[in-house]
Amino acid sequence: MDGYRFRIQLTVAVYKQKRLTYKNDMIVPTVYHRRSEARAHIKKELQDRLKNTDFFVSPRVDYDLVRYTNEASCNTYLRYRIVEDKKAVVLHSDLLQK
After folding, report:
1. Residue 66's CB: how many other CB atoms inside 10 A?
2. Model-level pTM?
């Protein structure tokens, strides 16, 4: 897998009255050369959020964390995923050709 680069995709979803009302996928700008580096960053991020914010481990299997508001009628969910950064791979191969 030499030459691959990885990024973290963060998904934020808001459910009101158990219905999805907002969802946004964001790519964290940091590029990781190893998948294990991205995993370590996610692990640290989860630990920090659990310790320092009002997020809890999500009971839903498709999300990592949840923050409950308004008597749990409006909940914010977070999901972290590692994705291959195809753009960085292309840029890397372009630089090798020059």
Report:
1. 19
2. 0.81
